[in-house]
Design a protein that fits this description.
This protein is mostly helical and 147 residues long. It has four helices and two strands, in the order ααααββ.
Length: 147
């Protein structure tokens, strides 16, 4: 396969960088999901403890007003995560992967690979261009060399 034009690699690299930020945002969304879920169970525990401490009215208010409450109109956090995945993440992820498949032969992080070639010091320890050949199973090896 002929190496792609540097401008193309840079443009697809920019889309890949954008996807990396989407991935980070998605991770924060999953953190939000887990943190709110944990907080909901803690509020449930607090309601039980308030009840045991004789604060039945406050326990009941906490149990009915806060525990199990939607975080966004009609949605718990899992629904927010699912909707994000279905309506945004899956589309951005798929678009970037298609660009890489159709224009870079499926190679990911091609822009970063160019940067590595520009910034490394050939012949110096820890500056190898590619990892060593990886052996996978009996008689099967995978070369890291492309282009």
């Amino acid at each position: 396969m002929e190496p792609p034009a540097p401008e193309l690699v840079e443009a697809i690299g920019k889309a890949s960088e954008a996807q990396e930020f989407v991935e980070r945002a998605r991770g924060h969304l999953y953190s939000f999901h887990q943190l709110i879920g944990h907080a909901d169970f803690l509020f449930g525990d607090a309601a039980d403890m308030l009840r045991e401490a004789g604060l039945d009215e406050e326990a009941e208010r906490l149990s009915t007003d806060i525990v199990g409450r939607n975080v966004i109109d009609g949605r718990w956090t899992f629904q927010v995560v699912d909707e994000f995945d279905d309506l945004y993440w899956s589309h951005t992820f798929g678009f970037v992967r298609r660009l890489e498949q159709e224009h870079l032969g499926g190679r990911r992080h091609a822009f970063e690979a160019q940067l590595k070639d520009e910034r490394r010091t050939p012949g110096h320890e820890g500056h190898d261009r590619r990892p060593p050949r990886v052996v996978r199973g009996v008689g099967e090896s995978v070369s890291q060399q492309r282009w």
